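ok so i was messing around last nite and threw this chain in just to see what happens. nothing serious, just curious
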Amino acid sequence: MNSSNSKRLVEVCENTGVRSFLVDDENDVNPVWLQDVSTVAVTAGASAPENLVQNLVAWLRQNGFNSLEEVELVEEDVHFSLPGELQAAAPRLTTISLS
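result:
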């Protein structure tokens, strides 16, 4: 995953002594990471698709982490508008976004 938000979340956790791993999806989880672990926190950057988060949570449930508590620390309501020059050119543009 290339999200700078997700990378930052991992960095913040690691800086507080929490073992942290950055994965693209549940297939990247190494079961060894979860040995002797009783609690897993799942975080995701703003650009992480919700279905990937839900798939990871489902995988964790299938692997013994049955109790789930969802915590929303910050409700985001951020809207970005195009600068005027791009709005005028919008009909002629194609967008390619990096995650």
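not much to say yet. Residues 56 and 62 are 10 Å apart (CA to CA).
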